[in-house]
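Supplementary Text 2. Reproducibility record for the structural model of the 228-residue chain.

All settings were left at their defaults, and a single model was retained for analysis rather than an ensemble. We include the record here because the model underlies the residue-level annotations in Supplementary Table 4.
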Amino acid sequence: MKLSIVIPVYNEKKTLSELVSRVEAVNLEKEIIIIDDASTDGTRDLLKKYEGQERFKVIYQSKNAGKGSALRAGFEKAEGEIIIVQDGDLEYDPKEYPQLIKPILDGRADVVYGSRFLGGTHRVFFFWHYVGNKILTTISNMCTNLCLTDMETGYKIFRREVLDAFTLKCNRFGFEPEFTSKVARHSFRVYEVPISYSGRGYEEGKKIDWKDGVAALWFIFRFRFFSS
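Retained model, structure tokens:
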């Protein structure tokens, strides 16, 4: 099956070239879709070398609208049977694609979450990030009746047909709880696979903070009780 690797990026000049090299090195049939969310650090200049290359699609957002908006733009261009969301930093390892897509290839899953908490090698987390993630995942599970260990993971993999079942609306990091809520509502088969994780600190470019956690909590309740 052909993979569509959808990579939203914002100010990832330091990591983008290495990340793309790692994705290219995976020996699977794939297309690479990179969406620049109006970067200001020179990321756009780096992306020019991928324009027109075979297997690459480069999309430029006219203004910074957030991860969810960038992903929607990428999903519209995706032609693969399986879609992989890949963050533009180096926290997640593309070498793990074969393990991540296996439950789908085996016919067991429609959606796969790469979990940072199922035993994979990982850099030690910030304590409060860990607590926040556990709280959000637990509340999400209560609202969706799923039993995930890592709702906020950056690795979400799914069959192309999953996107045809619902409409995504969130522009920023609300994508994670929105996607989870709608996957659960449509009774898709969900699997988790352990992954490694090389988390970075804020001095290294990490962008998510406590305000995003509060927003995620709102979106969990919004898509459970107030919105389709």
